[in-house]
Amino acid sequence: MTIARSPERGKAAAVAPWQEFHRRHVLDLDDFSSEEIEQVLTTAGAMSEVLGRRIRKVPTLRGRTIVTLFLEPSTRTRASFEQAGKVLSADVINLSGSESSVKKGESLVDTAKTLEALGADVLVMRHPMSGAPNLVARATGLRVVNAGDGWHAHPTQALLDLFTIRQRLGRVDRLTVLIVGDILHSRVARSNIWGLTKLGARVVLCGPPTLMPSQALAAFAAAGQRLSIEPDLEHAIPQADVIMTLRLQKERMDSGFLPSMREYAALYQINDQRLARAKPAALVMHPGPMNAGVEISHEVAHGPRSLVETQVTNGVAVRMAILYLLAATGEDA
To answer: 3-class DSSP state for residue 179?
Structure first.
C-alpha cells in the first residue's frame, strides 16, 4: 500500500509498516509493547518524508473526520494535531472548552457521544482531569487519542521524544536519559518513563524531593534497574546521553512545594555551566512551554545541543503516524 505519489520523484512513496495497528486508542504507553512503539516510530519516519516534500499533502485520510477537543490550553499539541490531520486530507474540527457544551454543564461523555453521532472517527482530547480520555474510550465507539490528561499521561509527546532521540542518536536502547524537574505533576515524565524503558533506555530522575512522586514511582517497578532516582543534579549530569528538563507546573501546585523559583533555578536549572559537565555529545530536550531562566537557561534552550525546535517539528510527523494508524489501519477501521 502507498501513501501518495511523489511529484518530485515520480514514483509512489510507501509508508512502512503497513500491517494493521492492533488497537483502537492511544491513551498511554503503559500498555504498548515495544513492537507497537516501533511501529509508530517507523511510520512517523515515513510521515516525516511526506513533510519534506514541496507539496505537503496526501489523500490518505480523505473522508475521515478528526475532532480535537481541548479543555486545557495548548499551542504545540493542538496545532500539530490539526496540521497532521490536514496534511493527511482528513476533515479536522477543532473545539475548545469555551466552544463546547461542556461549559454549559453537559457531561464529557454526552459531548463525546454527540461528536460520534455527528460522524467523528477520531477524538483527540486534552482534559485537566486524569483518566478522562479513558472514560470516553469506554463509553463511546470513537477512537480516542489522549493529548494530555491531568498529571497522568501524554503519550504522543513521549512518542515524539522517542522519535527525536532515535533520529539524532540512532538508537534508544542502552542510552541514559536524565529527566529533571517537576516529576510529580508531569504527565510527560510518566509517559516517557514507560516508552524509554520499553525500548531499553535507562532513565534517571532528578528533582526536589517534594516534586518526586515516591508512591507513583512504584508503578514503574517493572522497569527494574532501568529506572533510578538521583537527587544531586551535579552527579547525574555526567552520565546522561540526553537531558530532558521539565516545566515547573505552577498552575498545578499548592503552596509549600518549593521555597522559591530562584532556589529551584540555583539547584536544578540546566545552564551552560552544568551542560559543560555532560558528555560532549549529550543533547537537551524540553516538552514546552518553557519557563526560560527557571528550568533551562535561554542560552541552552537555543544552543547547538538543544532539540527543542526539532521536537516541535517531529510532533507533526508522529501525530500523523498516530492518526493514520488509528483511522486507516487500526482495529476495526
So the answer is: strand
